[in-house]
Amino acid sequence: MTSTSAKNNFFPPGLVSNLQQVLSKKNNEDNRESDQAKDNVESTDPSASTSVSDATEEAIDISKPIVLVTNAEGIDSPGLVYLVEALVREGLYNVHVCAPQSDKSLSGHSVTLGETVSVSSAEFDGAPAFEVSGTPVDCVSLALSGALFSWSKPLLVISGINRGPSCGHHMFYSGVVAGAREALICGVPSLSISLNWKKDESQETDFKEAVTICLPLINAATRDIEKGLFPKSCSLNIEVPTSPSSKKGFKLTKQSMWRSTLNWQAVSANRYPAGHFMSNQQSLGIQLAQLGRDASAAGAARRMTTQKKNVEIESIGVAGKSDSNRVKKHFRLEFLDKDQEETEDDLDFRALESGFVAVTPLTVSPHTERDILTAASDWISAALHGEQ
């Protein structure tokens, strides 16, 4: 053993003591720097990085199937909130949510292409959730891509519950049906659910009743999907009547030709100032038209700027055109109900108006549509008979 003493050392005792303190302090600093450098290396190591899903998801119980919930009215809408809460309470599923930040009810099957979509985590007890600055189709597509959650294929996708019916030709405008259709295109069974909301008659608690009505059908679907008994290449559109608690029962229905009339009204700029349309849910058509024209103007400006370096163009959309001879008009789009000529009782809107829960099988495979719809009809009849 080596000892340090004043007698065997060529340095004065005070200097030795000082040197020992300095060396000890330096060693401590070196150790701290080494640990910090190691931490930095680990944090930049791709294998140690934390993904979006890792940061927001709790441990998944692999014994429970994954159910993805989306909608069209936005992540804070009561229909979505009540549905997610009920599914979590059931305790049968790993519930995940991916829904639009704002109302996209009439977005149809549109996607956000060429623009950045922002995603933020949302608060739902018992269900990892994200809100997306895009359409319902964006939400489903992103969720199924594997980039957002730690999985890429849930057992079932549920879109809803949305305010207002999605019967007949309204399915082509409907964002809630589009969310379910996108899942079907990606090979995942899906349900879309809407409540036949009527002004001055419906109330928010109707969404709770709609959830209670639909839960048995949701449970039957997940059970038979796992067993391989659910009809292939099929989505179910579920329409809940205005007074859910007074429903007459379930009815297997066909998609009708029902639609509202698209009514364009000319309006003055003074009556509807800038920004009015962006806050009115019923004016999505004019919003999209204006945004499309603005985008076209911006694209043209960029192309002109690229081709002619000495030319400067200000692109602020149609409203910013300096040509005083240009004619500018304002329009507002509204849906107007019209009389329906179809009278069959098994049509979706007829069953809905008669107080039934209308269940309509939908498909995206036209060449095998008859076989798919027959199989779907048989399953729905058996499922509803079993629940009732």
From TrEMBL:
Domain of life of the native organism: Eukaryota
Positions with biased composition (Polar residues): 43-54
Biased composition (Basic and acidic residues): 26-41
A single MF term (Gene Ontology): nucleotidase activity
Signal peptide: none
Pfam families: SurE (PF01975)
UniProt protein name: Survival protein SurE-like phosphatase/nucleotidase domain-containing protein
Species the sequence originates in: Carya illinoinensis
